[in-house]
């Protein structure tokens, strides 16, 4: 990686001249990786078809997976959206800027590559000051998926971006660790009933306080190399997504039974010569004390936001230590816990080990 292609910007004291460098790259059709409050994104001018195509190429992203368009102000919504339902104003007044993506009817002028050929478009207004400044100074709306290789854990640090995409990006802005660490919530407003397609940084409970009839209906689509495969209406819908290199096993059930079952799996894998990693909370570390496994703490069980913030970094950290198998259990699905469950479910490729009994099953 050419270190000249990385610039550090303090989000608490933004150097506008540095942001202007990145903005000029966007204006000229280049790619810039930048921090948001959720994860790092790889951005390009929404209306530059060649730049958007390059995003898909660099990420190795399938063409049927749409990209979120990022705005710096509400007026820009008219540039990319054809229709704005009345409920939109109430929602954005409450949650924008922030980690909430809306699915709306696309302006036909937006290149079809951005929306994977669909008549809808995903849009959001990030709250991260570096992201907002970049969009504003570029004078463009910026289409930006997560700045990682497709299907890998999303990047929450600049180093994660460097690991995956290196010199293939014109510029990487290092703005420190992402605050939330999990992608935005995706809310579809194009149907009769507002629907959360992807749980994320804004909880179901918070949105439901504004939209009482809200439902949650995430999709878990299988990946196919078939170019005729139906496009997803939202990013992050594939059942294999956010996945580490190591095989991730997700356990679900009563805490005591789950932990005991995980230990039995660990014993079996160690006998097979596997290198084992554990994602767990501080309170559970004592159950896995062994020189034969590597533990990454996600924080306290009392702080789901901490678990969310550490999740992807934990997967990447264990991958970098050559782990073969990662074990993790599910947690509460309330609040941001629903988004944590969604990411773990996809990282485990939709497979869950139910720990209702202690009967051995491997």
Structural write-up:
By secondary structure, the protein is an alpha/beta fold. It folds into two domains: 214 residues, Alpha-Beta Complex (DHBP synthase), CATH 3.90.870; 109 residues, Rossmann fold. Helices cover 28% and strands 20% of the residues. The strands form two sheets. Strands 1, 2, 3, 4, 5, 6, 7, 8, 9, 10, 11 and 12 form a twelve-stranded mixed sheet that branches. β10 and β11 form a beta hairpin. α1 crosses α5. The chain is globular.
The CATH class of the largest domain: Alpha Beta
CATH architecture label name of the largest domain: Alpha-Beta Complex
Structural class: alpha/beta
Q: What average pLDDT do the residues reach? A: 93
Q: Which radius of gyration do the C-alpha atoms yield?
A: 20 Å
Tell me the fraction of residues in β-strands, as a range. Answer: 15-25%
User: How many structural domains are formed by the residues?
Assistant: 2
Helix content: 25-40%
CATH superfamily of the largest domain: DHBP synthase
Reading the helices and strands in chain order gives: EHEEHEHEHEEHEHEEEHEEHEEHEHE
Individual helix count: 10
Distance from first to last alpha carbon: 43 Å
Main beta sheet? 12 strands, mixed
Total E-strand runs: 17
What is the global morphology?
Answer: globular
CATH topology of the largest domain: DHBP synthase
Uncertain residue segments? 224-228
């Amino acid at each position: 990686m050419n270190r000249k292609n990385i610039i550090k910007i303090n989000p608490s004291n933004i150097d506008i001249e540095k942001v202007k460098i990145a903005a000029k790259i966007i204006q000229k059709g280049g790619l810039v990786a930048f921090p948001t409050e959720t994860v790092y994104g790889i951005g390009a001018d929404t209306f530059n078809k060649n730049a958007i195509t390059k995003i898909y190429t660099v990420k190795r992203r399938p063409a049927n997976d749409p990209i979120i368009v990022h705005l710096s102000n509400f007026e820009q919504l008219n540039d990319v959206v054809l229709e704005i339902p009345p409920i939109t104003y109430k929602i954005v007044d409450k949650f924008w800027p922030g980690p909430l993506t809306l699915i709306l009817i696309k302006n036909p002028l937006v290149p079809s590559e951005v929306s994977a050929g669909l008549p809808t478009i995903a849009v959001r207004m990030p709250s991260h000051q570096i992201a907002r400044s970049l969009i504003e100074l570029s004078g463009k709306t910026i289409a930006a998926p997560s700045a990682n290789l497709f299907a890998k854990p999303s990047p929450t640090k600049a180093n994660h971006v460097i690991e995956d995409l290196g010199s293939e990006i014109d510029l990487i802005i290092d703005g420190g660790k992402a605050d939330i660490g999990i992608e935005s919530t995706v809310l579809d407003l194009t149907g009769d009933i507002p629907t959360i397609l992807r749980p994320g940084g804004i909880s179901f409970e918070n949105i439901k306080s504004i939209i009482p009839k809200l439902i949650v209906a995430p999709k878990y689509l299988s990946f196919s190399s078939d170019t005729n495969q139906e496009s997803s209406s939202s990013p992050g819908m594939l059942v294999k997504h956010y996945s580490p290199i190591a095989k991730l096993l997700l356990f679900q059930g009563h805490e005591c039974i789950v932990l005991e079952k995980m230990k039995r799996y660990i014993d079996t894998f160690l006998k097979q010569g596997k290198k084992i990693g554990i994602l767990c909370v501080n309170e559970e570390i004592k159950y896995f004390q062994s020189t034969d496994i590597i533990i990454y703490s996600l924080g306290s069980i009392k702080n789901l936001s901490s678990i969310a913030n550490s999740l992807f970094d934990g997967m990447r950290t264990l991958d970098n230590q050559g782990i073969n198998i990662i074990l993790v259990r599910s947690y509460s699905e309330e609040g941001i816990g629903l988004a944590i469950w969604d990411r773990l479910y996809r990282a485990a490729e939709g497979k869950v080990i139910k720990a209702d009994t202690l009967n051995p099953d491997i």
